[in-house]
Design brief:
Radius of gyration: 16 Å
Helix content: 25-40%
Structural class: alpha+beta
Mean pLDDT: 89
Strand content: 25-35%
């Protein structure tokens, strides 16, 4: 059974440039690349190698966070997000030999997305944000979903889906099983809010 790609791993970033301050304007934009399925199911990528791949593509201020495929980087403008995503995916496929799919998020939008988490955070629950490269996938995630609100909570946000579930159940709830379906492999990925805060 497929499972939703979630990240709740603690750790520190590696491969950090001396000046990793996010940049906006003056022909530069800072992005976050969220890789799907890294360091699970036999796909192993060292953070130092991942950072070097982004630098080899001409990106700067590269910073990797945790081992679950999270990269903050700055790209020169102008850039079309779809083209940038495609170029990163192609580089990952060529460099690491796996079927790579990512979601790109502007770094300056991430804090607001995290702050918008609509459910109460408690020690016995995991808080996730599900991102998509295709907004239609988020509609598909929620359509016809039959949830037990005493177990998990799900809500649509601005370009994301928010999800709260009990610890230890992030692969077994109704939403987890829906999000883990093969049809979402190319378009969605989820991150724990703790992980996202490390990217800010």
């Amino acid at each position: 059974m497929s499972t939703v790609d979630v990240s709740a791993v603690d750790g520190t970033g590696v491969g950090v440039d001396p000046d990793s301050t996010p940049r906006y304007g003056h022909g530069m934009t800072t992005w976050v690349a969220l890789l799907r399925g890294v360091n699970v199911n036999g796909i192993t990528i060292r953070s130092v190698d991942l950072a070097e791949l982004f630098r080899s593509q001409g990106h700067t201020d590269v910073r990797t966070v945790l081992a679950s495929g999270n990269v903050v980087f700055t790209a020169a403008d102008p850039v079309e997000p779809a083209a940038l995503r495609s170029s990163v995916e192609q580089a990952l496929r060529k460099g690491f030999g796996y079927d790579a799919w990512i979601v790109l998020v502007r770094h300056d939008a991430l804090a607001e997305l995290v702050a918008g988490f609509p459910f109460a955070s408690t020690a016995d629950r995991h808080d996730y944000v599900v991102f998509a490269s295709d907004p239609a996938a988020l509609d598909d995630l929620l359509t016809g979903l039959d949830l037990d609100p005493s177990v998990e909570q799900v809500a649509r946000g601005e370009g994301v889906v928010y999800w709260s579930c009990p610890k230890g159940s992030s692969t077994t709830t109704a939403f987890a099983k829906r999000a883990g379906a093969a049809r979402f492999k190319r378009t969605t990925t989820a991150r724990n809010t703790n992980t996202l805060r490390k990217l800010l």
